[in-house]
């Protein structure tokens, strides 16, 4: 599923083929029309960037495209006349430039707006510090996690709140909590500042490592232990032995919207879910 590392790799993969080139054609499909998408035709692409879980394409006519991939969306890049790897009916957005075609499949959100609106955009303006930003403010991310409005939320829910810190998805959430041996159902208010800081740091480390250009498409959190134990510590392993201690990994859907949390009851002492 697309998380911040996926979007960072996507932006890096599209950038060499789109930036500096003029859009020759653009069209949208699927549910929810994108008003005036034809306005980007004839415009030069100035940048392709990831921000949290959003891909932002900016044009020299001061327009900006935002896509959010949801659970199933993805961007593909093709040469002209090259067969697509997904049915054209699933194409949500198609952007053509000389020598390349960028296709966004299955995205629930495609939006075109003026760049000046970004500072007051109802989603982008509320995002927390971007974990991929070279100037990432870890202290601000911890401060947002500590906000009184999140005090009674579980730490598993809080790490997914893009208004606290932008980029962590469900896989990295689970792996971060496991690596730091934190009960995913602990209230944010019950965790000290040092613990929150460690979670922010580990989450960022995992995302940045998985976004590296040399990294393959498979998300890996086990590092040097990958060949011996597999790519992930707990995510997707409910009912199987913990890779560290052998205790059976548990899972539970919770939160709003509900997401699946995986944890080891022994390594993450206290993580018993609903009691």
Per DSSP, what share of the residues sits in E-state strands of 2 or more residues? 15-25%
Largest sheet: 4 strands, antiparallel
Radius of gyration: 20 Å
What is the CATH class designation of the largest domain? Mainly Alpha
Mean pLDDT: 93
Tell me the strand order in the biggest sheet.
1-6-7-5
Instruction: Give the proportion of residues in helices.
Output: 10-25%
Terminal residue distance: 29 Å
Order of helices and strands: HEEEEEEEEHHHHHEE
Q: If helices are DSSP runs of H or I spanning 4 or more residues, what is the number of helices?
A: 6
CATH T-level topology of the largest domain: Helicase, Ruva Protein, domain 3
**Count of distinct structural domains:** 2
Based on secondary structure, the structural category is: alpha+beta
Question: Globular, elongated, flat, extended or rod-shaped: what is the shape?
Answer: globular
Total number of beta strands:
10
Provide the CATH architecture of the largest domain: Orthogonal Bundle
Low-pLDDT runs of 5+ residues are none
């Amino acid at each position: 599923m697309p998380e911040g590392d996926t979007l960072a790799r996507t932006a890096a993969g599209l950038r060499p083929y789109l930036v500096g080139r003029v859009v020759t054609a653009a069209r949208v499909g699927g549910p929810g029309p994108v008003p005036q998408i034809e306005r980007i035709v004839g415009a030069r692409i100035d940048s392709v960037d990831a921000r949290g879980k959003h891909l932002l394409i900016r044009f020299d006519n001061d327009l900006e495209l935002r896509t959010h991939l949801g659970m199933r969306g993805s961007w593909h890049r093709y040469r002209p006349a090259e067969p697509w790897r997904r049915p054209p009916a699933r194409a949500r957005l198609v952007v053509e430039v000389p020598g390349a075609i960028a296709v966004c499949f299955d995205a629930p959100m495609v939006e075109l707006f003026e760049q000046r609106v970004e500072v007051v955009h109802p989603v982008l303006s509320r995002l927390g510090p971007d974990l991929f930003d070279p100037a990432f403010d870890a202290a601000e991310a911890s401060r947002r996690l500590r906000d009184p409005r999140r005090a009674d939320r579980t730490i598993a829910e809080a790490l997914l709140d893009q208004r606290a810190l932008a980029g962590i998805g469900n896989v990295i959430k689970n792996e971060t909590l496991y690596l730091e041996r934190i009960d995913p159902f602990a209230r944010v208010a019950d965790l000290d500042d040092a613990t929150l800081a460690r979670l922010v740091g580990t989450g960022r480390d995992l995302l940045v490592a998985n976004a590296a250009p040399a990294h393959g498409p498979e998300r890996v959190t086990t590092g040097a232990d990958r060949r011996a134990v597999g790519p992930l510590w707990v995510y997707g392993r409910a009912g199987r032995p913990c890779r560290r201690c052998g205790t059976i990994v548990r899972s539970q859907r919770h939160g709003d919207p509900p997401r699946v949390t995986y944890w080891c009851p022994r390594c993450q002492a206290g993580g018993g879910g609903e009691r």
